[in-house]
């Protein structure tokens, strides 16, 4: 049932769109614990092959950034050390977890 007034229809549709976007962003924030919850891969430093493959990270991909406690992160050094209990642990085809950080702690 629609109103005859096009302005009220427009306002209702705009409020609905804003509410849906807010619901999505707040849901992602609640799930990941970070803001912004999504980042775009900007460089090709994570690309394993020219053509890419399913499961690899390519430039332009959207990534959910999770707020993970430091003690749950497994580094490349730990995963590649034969004497470490995490030896052989892999994510995205390489040893260790993928870590997203701010270069030199800079915000920009």
Largest sheet: 2 strands, antiparallel
Rounded to the nearest angstrom, the radius of gyration is 21 Å
Poorly predicted runs are none
Mean of pLDDT: 83
Approximately how much beta-strand content do the residues carry?
5-15%
| N-to-C order of helices and strands | HEEHEE
Q: Give the terminus-to-terminus CA distance.
A: 48 Å
Strand tally is 4
Number of helices: 2
Could you give the order of strands across the largest sheet?
1-2
Oligomeric grouping of the chains: single chain
Apparent shape:
elongated
Helix fraction bin = 25-40%
Query: From the helix content, strand content and strand pairing, which structural class follows?
Result: alpha+beta
Explain what you see.
The chain has 108 residues and is α+β, with helices and mostly antiparallel strands. It has a domain of 41 residues. The protein is 30% helix and 9% strand. It contains two helices and four strands. The strands form two sheets. The chain has a two-stranded antiparallel ribbon with strand order 1-2. A hairpin with a 2-residue loop joins strand 3 and strand 4. The mean pLDDT is 83.
